[in-house]
Amino acid sequence: MAAVHDVMVGEKHVPKGTTGMVNMWAITHDEKVYNEAKEFKTPFGAGRRVCPGKAMDLAFVHLWLAQLLHNFKWVPFDDSPVDLDECLMLSVEMKKPLLCKVVART
């Protein structure tokens, strides 16, 4: 995702066009959350040794998404048509970002 206009996040200035990415490494290496953050632990595993919490975790993701949809309206940023063309970067990404506004529901 990219900033569609200059914005202040706390005391930090984020210029228009700045690309934001989720740092999955930092999320999964937070010692306040994970006691053994520096140890390699596969997320779910597979086969006979699949994680017993996998179903609960996937249900949690659905709940989290439901809360985002319930608490916020996701509306188009402007009247531009949606372009679903893709390009290969670190993963397959949209050539043109899908811009939206997130508005808290009252």
From TrEMBL:
PROSITE patterns for the chain: CYTOCHROME_P450 (PS00086)
Keyword field: Heme, Iron, Metal-binding, Monooxygenase, Oxidoreductase
InterPro entries reported for this sequence: Cyt_P450, Cyt_P450_CS, Cyt_P450_sf, Cytochrome_P450_78A
GO MF entry, a single one: monooxygenase activity
Swiss-Prot/TrEMBL cofactor(s): heme
Pfam families: p450
Similarity section: Belongs to the cytochrome P450 family.
Name under which the protein is recorded: Cytochrome P450 family protein
Organism, scientific name: Medicago truncatula
